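Input set for joint prediction.
Command: fold jointly, output tokens.
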Amino acid sequence: MLYEINEKALKLESEGKKIIRLNLGDPDMATPPEIVEAAYASIKAGKTKYSSSYGELRLRQKIAEIHGVKAENIVITPGSKWGVFASMFLTLKGDSNVIIPTPYWTAYDLIAKSLGVKTKLLRTEMETGWKVDLAELEKLIDTNTKMIILNNPNNPTSKTMDPQTLEGIVKISNSRGIIVLSDEVYSAISFTPTKSILDYGTDSPHILSNGFSKTFTMTGWRIGYLVANKLFIDNITKLNQITINNVPGFIQDAALKGLEHRAEITGSIKAKYKQRADLASKKLSVAGFKFTQPDAPFYLFPKRDGLDGEKFTLNLLDSGVAVAPGTSFGDYQEHFRISLTAPDEQIATALDKICEVTV
Amino acid sequence: MLYEINEKALKLESEGKKIIRLNLGDPDMATPPEIVEAAYASIKAGKTKYSSSYGELRLRQKIAEIHGVKAENIVITPGSKWGVFASMFLTLKGDSNVIIPTPYWTAYDLIAKSLGVKTKLLRTEMETGWKVDLAELEKLIDTNTKMIILNNPNNPTSKTMDPQTLEGIVKISNSRGIIVLSDEVYSAISFTPTKSILDYGTDSPHILSNGFSKTFTMTGWRIGYLVANKLFIDNITKLNQITINNVPGFIQDAALKGLEHRAEITGSIKAKYKQRADLASKKLSVAGFKFTQPDAPFYLFPKRDGLDGEKFTLNLLDSGVAVAPGTSFGDYQEHFRISLTAPDEQIATALDKICEVTV
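tokens >
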């Protein structure tokens, strides 16, 4: 229902209605000007030709330096979503299945379906801090389980995984020959430090997916990357050669500029989202919603007992606020997701309406 | 061996050796300045957010107008290669097979292999003007044949398909329930008029793949499109949603600017390549090579009886000229492909070396 709400919001807007859009993870801020100017300079310098399906070496080296790996462990992708799809495409075939903790980002499940492979959902609950139960995980694994997908910090809960649980998952995966695909697109702007899958070795079969969209307000530019062992990176590159070929050279130069300024850029982005998250937490608490404190931008995933999330979302849209129903992220009827990606005053107004509708 | 030659050329260059690169279809000219400026203006205007997986409506409308179809028949892709992959991904499963006339663009075969589907090659010969034999085509078809891929004008021969043969292929496909995927990326700058798959109806199951790379010297920008029936376009869009998401909005604005200036831009590009093709034809004829006159940019696919094309290509590289061996395009040992995508004086020098080495 995520896309349905978005289409309805677009339709209402086209009819002249003002909608405050808190339904997508697309930041309201502009891409930082130094990144924009780097793109333009690069186009003018002629970085508009076919280029390497691995990505530009300078960008790969910079990313490798940040993660403490080698450039050969990096491939540049047109958005982190492509990295997820490509990893699943190469890993999951025929009878294999993939385990996904819920609530989850819809794309994981849709990709599995498009590949004709089975998804096994591992439910987590707000009441236990969205913690993965390792015993439950072990019960779900069978001989056809080839991958576990983690989203850390998580969309929609903004919860980071505690180190013990992450280590437990890695141990189980290693002992059963399962690849962990860890989507960490929110980690660089996380409020609290997050353990990465890379902390458990880089010669492993595990894969880190990351992107520039959230960290550098570059959603529409489509640039991300994977970190994995050299063989896997080589195989992704071969897939790139017959699909997307390359991320435009000038977009890679723009991303590199972002990395060079990352301390300032992420610092100000984090501060902005922390402020918004604090405001939202306060208002939602007063109104009696239950939720876990966000460890990272941009989302809150509040619950009210007995709420019909889809009906609530549709009613709210009629009063000019778009959010996403909990059912878009798994079987979470009583939840909804707020994305704090609109100007501050709009967020304040929207929160008041959210609190009104349900009280 | 296409990629191997390219890697070797890059290596020689990195060692300080001058290589004239006629091995790839990447034009030496710059992207036209009006396209570059349109991209920059669009980035500055904030077209850097997530956008529609169908593509921007204005661009789709313009393309629809050019092809005489509706905007609902158009989806924007990150390069025409993605359009080909996505079409094959959605059409070819399990036991199905795809027929590809040879010589072919390597990617078709590699994509089929990546999907685990069988390729049936339909050989054409220079001596019969690279014509597809319809009786041979019918013999190749079985109940699992789901697709025929045409490349019209063809890479590497630069030959356009005669209308009778194209019509014959469409008739056979229609009667056997086979989808024709027609890759026409060279058609807008073809020297001779080319029939399009769209001339045989737009409500058909057939698919046109096209791009901006060759027509507007935008290879590295990665933008192309598919034209097909609405249902198929909707399905490609769903695949886009879980893979590439969207082509950057500012790249779509740049492409739109190209279409608005297409008469001037394609006129001057065509004239330039016609001049190069005439020069190459003259020199190669004098040196005794056999080939068909190119109907379109950028390639010539000459033959010499008894030539070991791979050995020839490697020797030529040692004397500073990179071309592609015929074996990169199917079983064409005695051929090689010259790409006329370098500055004129380099092409003249390279042709002299090509003629020397083999005389």
